[in-house]
Design goal:
Distance between the termini: 59 Å
Oligomer: single chain
Helix content: 25-40%
Number of strands: 17
Shape: globular
Strand content: 15-25%
Structural class: alpha/beta
Length: 458
């Protein structure tokens, strides 16, 4: 059967390939779910079975954005504990989070995914680690929401086995036993992980953090992931308090602790990594351990400024993350392109910290590296999966910025005229084509109210 083709032309293109190739006016041809050609000028004449032609005049085409760290369930607890640091924020919100159930998880995932997809995210991930007893099939609900939205998705199946009685932060009824956590994680991998080219759903093994899981869960989780051939994810070096916690409990800093439990390697990525010294960064670079940089959340929780320029110079794979929408209420990734550039310029490297093109690379190719999919997504290249975004830059908001990449990164959030995932349209003219946004908004409001009532009742 002949391939169905979509032709996009007359647009600026930032390919984010190894050479940062750009075209002031170029074309992309999509054949089924793959990029068939990309180049300057109009598309080749005589193409067969063209089912759609898109005039990209006034637009910039980029790879789809890749989100590398999120907590979808937090969509229904946005706007709370707004003046807290990380530990106080967790203490304030865990009693509420511990009461989520399957309908809440599904609605929250729908809201989180819709917001990201509408803003140019084509590959999303969710680090879900709260599995209260009797809450239902939370993983299945989240994966179902991602399938409906139409984005490429990684569920980092999280876990916690250190409750309050063991010195952890979450209530005891919201944590799993070591055995149950490992068994449920393995079952999720077996049921949902797809290792094939073009996979829409993948699973990672993801114990929550050093202060909410046991050393044995970290160690056995790493062994499980490598036995199953999936990636590993956790939080790391987010705050000064975490470093102190690790030194007091384990007699070493977070990076050394991770290494001792098998948690450094090219199949691992960690969220935040704010408080890392030269030795830590070198260890990540040497082992290929990735980082999900979450600048807005780090600022919201007063965690600090991650040393992203130093990580990049050391060869550390770095992507961008929204983080949970209870610590990044906007819930979309364009903000992270902008804030990654701006916040890192407040650090030691000042104006030489990051460029607009480096920020775009973090949000596309860097994220693909971190998720282990850079051979398939993250750049606009022949043979890669057709995950593409066409940004409208000829409106008032960007009208006097000549450089389209600078306009996208530093300007206001650009409308998405078209977003393709696997060659399929998920956004048209800044609206989702796959789900009813108003219905999602109603559902998330209702579930947020229901959760608040349940939490208030104790």
């Amino acid at each position: 059967m002949a391939a169905s083709r979509i032709v996009i032309e007359n647009c600026a293109i930032a390919t984010v390939d190894a050479n940062d190739t750009e075209y002031a006016s170029g074309h992309v041809v999509v054949a089924d779910n793959l990029i068939e050609s990309v180049g300057a000028g109009r598309a080749p004449a005589g193409l067969e079975n063209v089912v759609r032609r898109v005039d990209g005049t006034g637009h910039l085409l980029t790879p789809g954005l890749v989100n590398t760290h999120h907590h979808f369930y937090q969509w229904i607890t946005r706007g709370l504990a707004t003046d807290h640091n990380l530990f106080d924020w967790l203490v304030a919100l865990y009693p509420t989070w511990a009461r989520i159930d399957e309908p809440m998880a599904r609605a929250a995932a729908q809201g989180s995914l819709a917001m990201m997809a509408r803003g140019g995210v084509t590959t999303a991930m969710d680090h879900h680690y709260v599995y209260p007893r009797g809450a239902g099939d939370l993983s299945g609900a989240i994966i179902g929401a991602a399938s409906e939205t139409g984005v490429r998705f990684t569920l980092a199946r999280g876990s916690m086995d250190r409750g309050r009685s063991d010195g952890g932060l979450p209530p005891d009824f919201a944590v799993e036993s070591l055995e149950d956590a490992l068994a449920a994680t393995e079952a999720t991998v077996d049921k949902y992980h797809d290792a094939s080219l073009g996979a829409m759903t993948q699973i990672a093994v993801a114990p929550c953090s050093p202060f909410s899981v046991s050393t044995e869960l970290m160690r056995q989780g790493a062994e499980l992931a490598r036995r199953k051939g999936v990636r590993l994810h956790t939080h790391g070096s987010e705050t000064v308090e975490e470093e102190q916690f690790c030194k007091e409990l384990f007699g070493m800093g977070p990076t050394d602790y991770f290494e001792s439990t098998g948690w450094l390697g090219s199949d691992v990525w960690m969220a935040h990594c704010v408080h890392m010294n030269d030795s830590d960064i070198a260890a990540f670079g040497r082992t290929g351990t990735g980082v999900a940089h979450c600048p807005s959340s780090n600022a919201r929780l007063a965690a600090g400024i991650a040393r992203v320029p130093d990580m990049l110079r050391a060869g550390v794979p770095v992507g961008l993350g929204v983080d949970g929408t209870a610590s990044n209420e906007s819930g979309e990734l364009h903000t992270e392109l902008r804030n990654a550039l701006l916040i890192n310029r407040l650090g030691a490297h000042r104006e030489s910290a990051l460029t607009a093109r480096q920020a775009l690379r973090l949000g596309t190719h860097g994220g693909a590296q971190v998720l282990g999919r850079a051979d398939q997504i993250g750049s606009v290249e022949t043979g890669k999966l057709a995950d593409l975004v066409l940004w409208k830059l000829d409106t008032l908001a960007h009208s006097s910025i000549a450089d389209p990449v600078v306009a996208l990164v530093l300007g206001a959030a650009a409308p998405v005229t078209l977003s393709l995932v696997n060659g399929r349209s998920v956004v048209e003219d800044n609206h989702l084509t796959t789900v009813d946004e108003d219905a999602v908004a109603r559902s998330t409001r209702a579930e947020a109210r229901r959760l608040a009532r349940i939490a208030a009742a104790g």
